[in-house]
Amino acid sequence: MSNLSSYLPLFINVEGLKVLVVGGGKVGTKRALKFAESKAIVYVVSLEFKDENELRLFDNIHLIKNDARYLPENFLSRFNIIVVATNDKELNERICETCKKLGKLCNNPTNPDSSNFIVPIYGIEKGVGIAITTFGKSSLTSKYLLDLIRSNILKENIFSLVDTMGKVKEILKLNVTEPSIRFMFYSKIFYDDKFRYYVDRGEIDLAIQRAREIIYGR
Ligand SMILES: C[C@@]1(CC(=O)O)c2cc3[nH]c(cc4nc(cc5[nH]c(cc(n2)[C@H]1CCC(=O)O)[C@@](C)(CC(=O)O)[C@@H]5CCC(=O)O)C(CC(=O)O)=C4CCC(=O)O)c(CCC(=O)O)c3CC(=O)O
Ligand SMILES: NC(=O)C1=CN([C@@H]2O[C@H](COP(=O)(O)OP(=O)(O)OC[C@H]3O[C@@H](n4cnc5c(N)ncnc54)[C@H](O)[C@@H]3O)[C@@H](O)[C@H]2O)C=CC1
Q: Which Pfam family, any one, appears in the UniProt record (predicted)?
């Protein structure tokens, strides 16, 4: 496994990005659908398509029936992101190597060492995004961790906290021009017991009023 310190988690907006999925079997289909649901423009190159009907439900998925052993570099270079998911391990690795040389983001689902990004399990709910990976060791454990966070941590008070701090940010950006002073206020408000008491009880108007008291000193 590559050095884990060189992984940087990012939330990428894939809308309009060009994604190539090589191999239209179980794994390739799942990845193609995931990217298409997030509004990427997806091309799937494969000898055959396991679930052609499901893929055809999306206007932004294009199917190309072809042998991926002969994909030229000038074809690969048209894409932003490439996923290699044939059942030919050497072919997957060879295409990923070429794509990385071309400066592309490439995912080989069976081999994180060949990939330069991996797909975490994720959930986005009420303005909070959580992504978890075990870098290929155990997807089931990743799923379990996400469920634990969802059922034990992501409760109404956390969503209220995020929303209210978002409102506090709007107030501060509008009224305090100096960033270093704004930053001092963010912490002061976030850790204020009264502010948090109101947020926990869902009394958002009172929480905002408390934030204003802290900002304006009254
Ligand atoms: C490295 C990675 C690919 C990458 O590079 O992105 C990878 C690799 C592999 N997974 C395998 C198996 C399983 N994968 C799942 C499920 C998911 N796997 C996903 C991601 C990733 N899987 C990446 C790292 C994720 C991480 O480490 O956390 C999810 C999150 C997203 C997605 O696939 O779209 C999706 C959640 C679906 C959801 O949303 O519910 C389950 C559970 C299930 O099906 O319920 C199992 C059963 C066993 C188990 O628990 O692992 C095998 C075959 C092993 C073999 O052949 O024996 C390999 C390849 C290998 O190891 O060779
Ligand atoms: N990441 C994950 O969660 C998992 C990964 N895997 C691995 O991923 C790989 C793919 O698995 P599946 O999708 O289940 O296999 P699959 O057999 O369902 O699909 C393989 C696809 O690749 C296509 N293909 C093969 N050679 C090709 C070529 N030369 N050119 C174009 N297309 C070609 C086939 O037509 C087929 O559609 C396997 O190596 C498997 O071990 C398997 C299970 C889970």
A: NAD_binding_7
Tokens of 197: 């008491």
91 lines ligand 2 (CB under 6 A): yes
CA of residue 5 to ligand 2 center, whole Å: 29
Question: Does 101 sit in the ligand 2 pocket, CB within 6 Å?
Answer: no
CA of 18 to the centre of ligand 1 (A): 23
Q: Are 120 and 133 in contact (CB under 8 A)?
A: yes
Ligand 1 centroid, distance to 128 Cα (angstroms): 23
Global pTM value: 0.91
Residue 183 neighbours by CB distance under 10 Å: 12
Phi, psi of 2 (to 5 degrees): -60, 165
The identity of residue 133, as a single letter, is T
Q: Which of 79, 132, 131, 72 is nearest to 106 (CA)?
A: 79
Mean pLDDT by 10 residues, the chain (218 residues): 87 98 98 98 98 97 97 97 98 97 97 94 94 96 97 94 97 95 97 98 97 90
Of 98, 82, 161, nearest to 126 (Cα)? 161
| Nearest ligand atom owner, CA of 31 | 1
- Rounded CA-CA distance 11/120 in Å is 11
Residue type for 57, please? L
